[in-house]
Amino acid sequence: MSDQALTVEAHIPAALRPAVAEALASAARARVAERLRDGDATLWGPPGTPEISDRLGWLTIAERMLVEAEDLETFAAAVREEGVRDVVLLGMGGSSLAPEVLRRSFGPQPGGPRLHVLDSTDAATIRAVQAAVEPTGTLFLVSSKSGGTIEPLSLFAHFWSLVGDGRSFAAVTDPGSGLAELASQHGFRRTFPGDPDIGGRYSALSPFGLVPAVLAGVDIRALLVGAPAAWETAVDGHPAGVWLGAVLSALADGGPGDGAPGDGAPGGGAPGGGAPGHRAGGRDKLTFLIADSLPGLGLWLEQLVAESTGKHSTGILPIAEEPVGEPGVYGEDRVFAYLPDTQAPDPSLDARVRALADAGHPLITIPTDGPADLGRVFMLFELAVAVAGWGLRINPFDQPNVQQAKDATNRVLAGYEPGRGLPEARDVHDDELGALIGGAAPPDYLAIMAYTEPSDEFDEAAGELRTAIREATGVATTFGYGPRYLHSTGQFHKGGPKTGRFLQLLHDGPLDVEIPGAPYTFTVLKNAQAVGDLRTLRELGLPAERVRLQGDDPAGALRELTARIKRAIGPDRGRPAGAPPNQSGRPGAGSSGSRRPA
């Protein structure tokens, strides 16, 4: 595929072009492209700023992993020759999302084991994976950068109790971690070291993404060889990743003003030292429209963008896997990123995307060459998000609020006693649903957080709820399964702009799963994570409500909740058909919803 066919294109409304031009000029003055190529950590802060200079290994990881490719391929071949039919990845966040994209995009490979990605503490989900494999013919890959993440370690304890043979286990973790020690103690077949200079969400082309991919039969050399091409396409004289990052930060920041990014201090302002937040009118809802041939890519992009930019009351909120609507249902806080597949054209989606641009929404088209092009796509967006961090004057490599949810879970578990249960938050009443959702208008957003078994049916029901809310209020919604979202958009929820509203959904199946060595089960752990996160959101003064879905059909229960919500918020008030949602005159716009203790 020629460079021209993969050239990034943009439709930017005239009113937004001065801000974009200013950001690109500032990037040129600050020599962002050259400094990024050189791994200059002062782009984002003064020399010695923690979690910058020791987080830039992703810039060169593709070239370095090409040297390791033969070793990984030899390991995968040995696993296949021994008759391993399934590989179960036990991971979370940056350790699971890139493998999930590769698993879903490439599908089963001839002669390769089936790859299962288990990143849930839901007991029904664990039981479903367990039922889908024969444990003695399965390789369990425990993946955790820190080596201390509660979810993969709990999953390891469960599957070790079923198999108890180190040859059936391998690990991916940073050198010297607790997981590396555990692997040694249990005689794991192999431990693959990660690069300590790469954060989890930038690790797609490191062993965290490549080991599960090669085990599943994916051509990892093609991914690695394709990655450097992210630098080769230019837009307006800038490498495409630099251009994209500067443009996204300019649109999110709301327009030109004093203190242009890159001016003044070496990094354009020290991260956390007076980050500007958003000006009125910012296009900070980055809405991804992605070809069907790249399933799961939106979830990987969601973590990369949200966890990198959502801090110090600023950020770009990624909107992934939202049903496509007509132009008039979207607020003026949106910018659209369209990733078509040049090898699998979709004229219908092309037409709907063009309609968005014709209606005056900013649209950036980033063509792809399908699954084989994912190495370039990963690198392109890693570059873009790093540059967006520069433009927003934040450190894109730290995650200052992620620990809050972990600490909250630990506090809940510390007070748990078997047989006594967990603190039970009261379910929301209909009038409170109306205040939470019906009182919202752009630039608000609603995060729907589901602690339940993932399924296509639940995804579809969640899409119906998201569509109903958008049509009634114009508000952008995100949807994520817990606890996965805690390692993804959870950072943005707590550290980003205080425009979020939160609806937590819980559902427990009838059967539980024990965690060997722990005084609690997986259902208790899942509910503790939900309780801890709800408490944290409310302690931060954010409007957050909870609904426990009843019965054996969570998707059906969610559809019943959608009907309740429609009744609670009522029809759209005063918006002409096809007109953009009212952003200032809607009754109740900007109200806080309910803020009460968990």
Q: Per DSSP, what share of the residues sits in E-state strands of 2 or more residues?
A: 5-15%
The rounded distance between the terminal residues' Cα atoms is 54 Å
**SS element count, helices:** 19
Total number of distinct structural domains: 3
Oligomer: single chain
Biggest sheet, in brief?
Answer: 5 strands, mixed
| Structural shape | globular
CATH topology type of the largest domain: Rossmann fold
Helix content: 25-40%
Q: For the residues shown, what is the average pLDDT?
A: 90
Q: Pairing-aware structural class of the strands and helices? A: alpha/beta
Description:
This protein is α/β, with parallel strands linked by helices. It has 3 domains: 4-39 and 229-391, Rossmann fold, CATH 3.40.50; 59-226, Glucose-6-phosphate isomerase like protein, domain 1 (Rossmann fold), CATH 3.40.50.10490; 402-569, Glucose-6-phosphate isomerase like protein, domain 1 (Rossmann fold), CATH 3.40.50.10490. 39% of the residues lie in helices and 13% in strands. It has helices at residues 17-29, 32-37, 61-81, 97-106, 123-132, 150-163, 178-185, 207-215, 220-226, 240-253, 297-309, 347-358, 374-391, 402-414, 430-438, 456-473, 490-495, 522-539, 554-569, and strands at 9-11, 86-90, 114-118, 138-143, 169-173, 190-193, 234-235, 238-239, 285-290, 317-319, 334-339, 363-365, 445-451, 476-481, 500-506, 544-548. The protein has a 5-stranded mixed beta sheet with strand order 1-12-11-9-10, sandwiched between helices. A 5-stranded parallel beta sheet has the order 3-2-4-5-6, with helices on both faces. Helix 7 (178-185) links the parallel strand 5 (169-173) and strand 6. The longest helix is centred in the N-terminal third of the chain and has 21 residues, at 61-81.
